[in-house]
Design a protein that fits this description.
417 residues; 19 strands; five-stranded mixed beta sheet; 36% helix; six-stranded mixed beta sheet
């Protein structure tokens, strides 16, 4: 039987339903922001490349992760902010134009709502839906680069936005899995946007940066410049593919290949001393073999090189090759491997750093790892959305047209980093 609980507005819960793990984080509001009070994770066996393929397995993993987080925090949760990824995700930039209404020709909140609606009016097939509309910049007459146009005078208002769409069935399967675990989905957040919220610094967002989150089944990419999202993509390649390459190349079981990757993997052969030796378990009950660690690096490096090369190629196709003035930030579990930043620097020709979550208090020592970037970012995004949704009645409904408008515009401006 599905449990029914009341949503506690003081608790903000992020739920990262990933290919290799499901992770849940419980945070509470404080005067300084958010404090982490609970963290739980469980192996994920119901997803493939970021897409739910087995709802029952996914539900079980969600229950386990939420249960562990609730036990640590000593609370019960009812609503979560869930992450979504997968190869079905598409991002596109769009532009909208409207005439500024009113006798004074002053931009109002209604004008901003109209121009954002105009920009999001793109043709979509019936099997796809809009997940995010992220404003980038506004233009008032000939004045471009406007962040908040309300109050400015003009006759023409333009908006540039980044629209993220996803397959209806894939998004709904994530929501359905969460609901069957007895939880409400308060909002869906694209995972690279969440990761960017957790690991990027304000100066990087302004100058321009590429965020690469290498997960188990997918690699999530976002380009942020001038404080806004200009590009998003989900590549169907990740750490699991590295594990598979090791299993095949070294003829070892997948579970052992994962252990070998975590303990001895290196993304650059140049960083591995020739004398390093690795014990590799064999299949069929055979004795373990002793192999040079350089052999392992020769298997790992081409796959990660392929991932970075695909990212670089796609960014060039999008015409954003000059955007990342601040360099590249890599995060996700695979980024912990030795040599990953060095390999990325070779491919992109830019400075590279590992991104770890920041901006939260409480159990910071527990979550300060690239593994938790997405789930921490989901909580931070949830806090923003709750702030944007404060213009509601006590029963949770908007306060009429002005309440809906205020909430939507708050969300619009909050989603500009």
């Amino acid at each position: 039987m599905i449990k029914s609980r009341a949503v506690d507005p003081e608790l903000i819960v992020g739920l990262d339903v990933g290919t290799t793990k499901v992770c849940a984080i419980i945070t509470t509001r404080t005067s300084n922001g958010l404090d982490v009070v609970g963290l739980g994770s469980a192996p994920s066996r119901g997803l493939r490349r970021g897409v739910v393929v087995n709802i029952e397995s996914t539900v079980d993993a969600i229950k386990q992760a939420i249960g562990d987080a609730e036990a640590q925090a000593g609370v019960e949760v009812a609503g979560v902010y869930a992450g979504v990824a997968g190869g079905h995700i598409r991002g596109v930039n769009s532009r909208g134009v409207v005439a500024i209404a009113g006798r004074d020709r002053e931009v109002t909140a209604v004008d901003v709502e109209r121009v954002v609606d105009a920009a999001r009016a793109i043709n979509l097939p019936p099997d796809r839906e809009v997940i995010h509309v992220l404003p980038q910049t506004f233009v008032v007459d000939d004045q471009d680069g406007v962040r908040e146009p309300i109050g400015m005078s003009g006759v023409r208002l333009e908006a540039e936005v980044h629209i993220v769409t996803g397959a209806v069935t894939s998004v709904h399967n994530v929501v359905r899995s969460v609901n069957r675990a007895g939880l409400n989905v308060q909002d869906i957040v694209l995972e690279p946007i969440a990761s960017a919220e957790a690991v990027l610094f304000p100066d990087e967002k302004e100058l321009g940066v590429i965020l690469i989150d290498i997960g188990g089944g997918t690699t999530d990419v976002a380009v942020v410049r001038e404080g806004a999202i200009w590009y998003t993509a989900i590549l169907p390649l990740g750490g699991d593919h590295v594990t598979n390459d090791i299993a095949i190349g070294l003829r070892t079981p997948l579970a052992d290949a994962e252990e070998v990757k975590r303990a001895h993997g290196c993304a650059s052969t140049a960083l591995v001393p020739a004398e390093d030796i690795v014990a590799v378990p064999s299949v069929g009950g055979r004795r373990p073999r002793q192999l040079s660690r350089q052999v392992l690096a020769e298997i790992v490096q081409p796959r990660l090189d392929e991932i970075f090369t695909l990212v670089a190629r796609d960014i060039v196709k999008a015409g954003l090759q000059d955007a990342p003035t601040a360099g590249v930030v890599i995060t996700g579990g695979t980024s912990l491997m030795e040599g990953v930043p060095e390999l990325a620097e070779e491919v992109f020709g830019l400075p590279v750093r590992r991104g770890v979550p920041h901006g939260v208090g409480g159990l910071t020592d527990v979550v300060q790892s690239p593994i938790y970037s997405t789930v921490v970012g989901l909580a931070l995004c949830g806090a923003r959305r709750q702030t944007a949704g404060s213009a509601r009645n006590g029963d949770g409904r908007p306060r009429g047209r002005l309440g809906r408008l205020a909430r939507r515009l708050a969300t619009v401006f909050e989603e500009i980093f």
